[in-house]
Amino acid sequence: MGRLVNGVWSTEWYDTASTGGRFVRQDASFRNWITADGAPGPSGTGGFRAEAGRYHLIVAMACPWAHRTLIVRALKGLQDIVTVSRVEPLMLDDGWTFADPEPETGALTAWQVYVKADPQFTGRATVPILWDRKQRTIVSNESAEIIRMFNSAFNGLAGVNASLDLYPEELRGEIDALNAHIYDRVNNGVYKAGFATTQAAYDEAVTALFSALDDLDQRLATRRYLTGTRITEADWRLFTTLLRFDPVYVGHFKCNIRRIADYPNLSGYLRELYQIPGIAETFDLAATKLHYYGSHATINPTGIVPAGPEMDLAAPHGRDRLLAAV
Ligand SMILES: N[C@@H](CCC(=O)N[C@@H](CS)C(=O)NCC(=O)O)C(=O)O
C-alpha cells in the first residue's frame, strides 16, 4: 500500500492522524469521458470517442468500485468492446500488482500505469482504471463516471444492449439522491468503520452505516428495487457492498451489529440481483476475502482468512411478490 508523489512510489498507510482517526477517501483524478462522438463530457477533455477495441479496463476482483464497472460492462454487452485485465488479489507494499506484465501497458504494478499516463502523478494508484490504447493514457479512474459512460456512450455500436438504461432521465434526481446517501453511509461507510483508528471515528461510522441499512431494508419492503419497479445504477452501486458485507465487512471491518442475512428485505434483494444472468461471473468470493483479510496488516496482522460464513446466494429470493417493470 502506498502512493505516488510526483511520479515516485512511496509506501505509506492511510494518514488518519490529521483527521481525528477518520478515513477520508481521495477524489479520483482522471475525469475524462468517453462519448459517442468524442465531444468532451461533463469534465476533463474531449477526444475519447466510443470505439470497439479502443478501451481497456483494469480491475481488482475484490474492489466494490471496480465491480460496478464489470457489472455494467456485462449488462450492456460490452465484453467484446472493452477488454479487461485484473490485478492480483493482495495489495501490499507495491500496491496493486499484475501476475504478468499488464498486456496493454507492460506495467507490473497499477502505479506504473498511472506514471505512464502522467509521469508527475501524485496520489493513490486506485482501480478501476479505464485506459485508452489510442492516446495511451487514463481516460478515467472514477467508477461512478465509468458506469455512466458504459451506460450510454457505446449505444450506437453493434452488439451493445442499447435499450438497457440504468440512469433514465425521469429517475435521475432520485438516483442521484440515493447514490449520495448510500455512498457516504454504506459504500464508503464500511471503509470508514474499518479504517477508523479511534473509537469515536468507528462509532460514528458504524452507527451511520446501520441506520442507513435499517432504512434501506424498510424501503425495500414495499419496493422491488431502490427507485421502485426497475433496476437502476443505484441498485448496482448498493449491490457490490451488500455482496461483500457478510463475508468481509462484518468481520474484517467490524460492521457486525447485524448481517445482511438478518435483514429480510435486503437479503432477498441481494440474492435477486446476484441471480441476474451475467452477474455471478463478475464476482470472485475467494479473491475478495483474500484481498481484504490478507492486505491490511494494521487490521489483520496474521493475514488469516476466515473460513465462513456459509452463504447461499442461489437460494430463492422471494422478491417476485413485489411489482417489477418488464
Ligand atoms: N473513487 C474511486 C475509488 C476507487 C478505490 O478507492 N479503489 C481501491 C480499491 S477498492 C483502491 O484501488 N485503493 C488503492 C489505494 O487506496 O491505494 C472509484 O470509485 O473509482
UniProtKB/TrEMBL annotation:
InterPro entries: Glutathione-S-Trfase_C-like, Glutathione-S-Trfase_C_sf, Glutathione_S-Trfase, Glutathione_S-Trfase_N, GST_Omega-like_C, GST_Omega/GSH, Thioredoxin-like_sf
Site description Lowers pKa of active site Cys, residues in chain: 249, 292
Active site: 63, 191
Residues in GST C-terminal domain copies: 168-290
Residues at which glutathione binds: 96, 124-127, 142-143
GO molecular-function terms, A-Z: glutathione transferase activity
Keywords assigned: Transferase
Domain of life: Bacteria
GO cellular component terms listed in the entry, alphabetical order: cytoplasm
Record protein name field: Glutathione S-transferase family protein
Origin organism lineage: Bacteria, Pseudomonadati, Pseudomonadota, Alphaproteobacteria, Hyphomicrobiales
